Amino acid sequence: MTTPITPITPTTPTTTPPAAPALASSMPRTQMGRSIIALEPAEPDPAGATFRGKLSADESQTYTSASPAQVEAACRLAWEAFDRGALADPRARAALLEGAASRLAVQGDALLSLASAETGLSLPRLSGERDRTVNQLRMFAAMVREGSWVEAIIERGNPARTPVPKPDLRRMLRPLGPVVVFGASNFPLAYSTAGGDTASALAAGCPVVIKGHPSHPGTGEMAAWALAHAARDAGLHPGVFSFLHAGGADEERLGAALVRHPCIRAGGFTGSPKGGLALAAIAASRPDPIPFFAEMGSVNPVAILPGALRARAKEIAGALAASVTLSAGQMCTCPGLVLYVAGDDADAGAFEQALREAMLALPVQPMLSERIGASWREGIAQRRSLAGVETVQGGEDRPGAPTLMLTTSARVREHHALSEECFGPSTVCARCESVGDLLRTLAVVKGSLTGTLWTQTDNAADAAAVLKALEAIAGRVLHAGVPTGVEVCPAMVHTGPLPASNRPDHTAVGSLAVRRWCRPVAYQNMPDELLPPELREKNPMGIERLIDGARTAPARPGANA
Amino acid sequence: MTTPITPITPTTPTTTPPAAPALASSMPRTQMGRSIIALEPAEPDPAGATFRGKLSADESQTYTSASPAQVEAACRLAWEAFDRGALADPRARAALLEGAASRLAVQGDALLSLASAETGLSLPRLSGERDRTVNQLRMFAAMVREGSWVEAIIERGNPARTPVPKPDLRRMLRPLGPVVVFGASNFPLAYSTAGGDTASALAAGCPVVIKGHPSHPGTGEMAAWALAHAARDAGLHPGVFSFLHAGGADEERLGAALVRHPCIRAGGFTGSPKGGLALAAIAASRPDPIPFFAEMGSVNPVAILPGALRARAKEIAGALAASVTLSAGQMCTCPGLVLYVAGDDADAGAFEQALREAMLALPVQPMLSERIGASWREGIAQRRSLAGVETVQGGEDRPGAPTLMLTTSARVREHHALSEECFGPSTVCARCESVGDLLRTLAVVKGSLTGTLWTQTDNAADAAAVLKALEAIAGRVLHAGVPTGVEVCPAMVHTGPLPASNRPDHTAVGSLAVRRWCRPVAYQNMPDELLPPELREKNPMGIERLIDGARTAPARPGANA
Question: β-pairing, B550-552 with B545-547?
Answer without folding.
Answer: antiparallel
